[in-house]
Design brief:
Blueprint (H helix, E strand, L loop, with lengths): L5 E6 L5 H10 L3 E6 L2 E6 L1 H10 L5 E10 L3 H9 L13 E8 L6 H20 L12 E8 L2 E7 L21 H10 L7 E4 L6 H11 L20 H12 L9 E5 L2 H13 L6 E5 L12 E5 L11 H15 L3 E7 L14 E7 L2 E10 L4 H7 L1
Parallel strand pairs: 5-6, 8-9, 8-11, 9-10, 11-12
Antiparallel strand pairs: 1-3, 1-4, 2-3, 4-7, 6-7, 12-14, 13-14
């Protein structure tokens, strides 16, 4: 493996590709290309460690090691068997295979993954007269198999567990938002840690914690114990330690406020447990407060939230969204607010025209991330004042 010019594929969620590309450029990626739910780039081994540790909108970071065409199962098996597997793992290491297949020839992804497993095991039997173990739950080495029609790409998964598993979420509510999606939303909303932040329906606190991490420039994986690349044959522990130290030295002090409201005491308790796990008790404040009875008390203010939607939590939709709009208009002048919702009909009851709409997915739910700008008076007056 050429560790100076690694070709790297970074997986993300739909709608966050440009945010991720920007992150990768800032971290020093070369030849950055935006793909569907992914960003491709090049970098050295140190860069691979750095993006695993720091990139907020990355879900999984892959390094392709073999690309070939296969027209049938036998051809596929032969090509996999021909690869020098001892260059990327030893017979004493366990492995697992994730597979994604878009092909009329290979219609069953689990079957193809099984074929690949057989070829790897048979290779080691031929070379060492022993088989490596397959461990789907906690493997030493994780491979990713991608088949697009006849084109097969086998990659090493450098991350292991998906990178949205930050390590601070101990409790979650009925409608939790994924950590990568939360960070992507905050970056789309322009949150840079300047000013104050409010999540008026904070649930178990994910948006609050990600907002604090962004504000302080904390590495996304500061709480993570293990990455898959630490089991690779070419792992450089000293280099990774240096990268972590350099990154931690860049942490900033945050002087604004990050506040979360919720009306559910159980949710607030979950949020406090997660905030404590993230060591953010001094930075984030959560309180029992009905957003519809609140008013703006922080200046300047950015608001980002994930209100409950019908699919997950039963609420009276038209009335609920109307109340959100009324609260925006009456209690939160000169505020930029962003809200994600899968209830594309319900949000029409907000009664304000969103100035931006971005299509995102929260799990399998298609959503819109909506920006509302509240001015005192009208936009016309606001522009005259500028």
């Amino acid at each position: 493996m050429d560790t100076e010019n690694l070709k790297i594929q970074i997986k993300t969620f739909f709608g966050l590709e440009e945010v991720l590309a920007e992150e990768i450029k800032k971290l020093g990626g070369r030849k950055v290309e935006v793909k569907n739910r992914a960003v491709n780039c090049e970098g050295d081994l140190g860069f691979l460690y750095k993006i695993n540790y720091s990139a907020r909108t990355a879900v999984k970071i892959l390094v392709p090691i073999a690309t070939f065409k296969a027209w049938n199962e036998n051809k596929f098996y032969d090509k996999v068997f021909d690869f020098p597997w001892e260059t990327v793992m030893s017979v004493d290491q366990s492995f697992a295979i994730d597979s994604t297949v878009y092909s009329e020839t290979f219609t069953h992804s689990q079957f193809v993954a099984l074929k690949m497993k057989d070829a790897i095991c048979d290779y080691f039997v031929m070379k060492e007269r022993r088989r490596p173990d397959v461990d789907p739950k906690n493997p030493d080495i994780k491979f990713h198999l991608h088949i697009d029609r006849e084109l097969v790409t086998i990659s090493l998964d450098s991350s292991g567990d998906p990178l949205f598993k930050r390590g601070y979420r101990k409790e979650q509510g009925e409608a939790p938002i994924n950590e990568v999606l939360a960070s992507g939303m905050l970056q789309l909303a322009g949150w840079d840690g300047k000013g104050n932040f409010l999540d008026p329906m904070c649930g178990s606190g994910t948006l609050l914690i990600e907002a604090a991490m962004l504000a302080m420039d904390l590495p996304a994986q500061i709480f993570r114990k293990k990455f898959a690349f630490q089991n690779w044959k070419n792992y450089d522990a000293e280099l990774f330690a240096k990268i972590k130290e350099f990154r931690i030295n860049r942490i900033k002090e945050f002087t604004g406020k990050i506040v979360g409201y919720d009306i559910d005491a159980r949710m607030l308790n979950a949020a406090r447990i997660n905030i404590e796990a993230a060591e953010m008790e001094d930075i984030i404040e959560v309180k029992k407060q009905n957003f519809f009875e609140s008013e703006k008390d922080m200046f300047p203010l950015l608001m980002v939230f994930n209100p409950p939607y019908d699919e997950r939590i039963a609420i009276n939709q038209p009335d609920f969204y109307k109340k959100i709009g009324d609260t925006f208009k009456q209690k939160y002048p000169n505020t930029l607010a962003w809200m994600i919702s899968s209830d594309l009909e319900g949000v029409k009851n907000v009664g304000l025209r969103p100035s931006r709409k971005i299509k995102l997915f929260n799990g399998k739910l298609e959503c819109r991330f909506l920006q509302y700008e509240m001015y005192e008076g009208t936009k016309k007056i606001h522009k005259l004042e500028k």
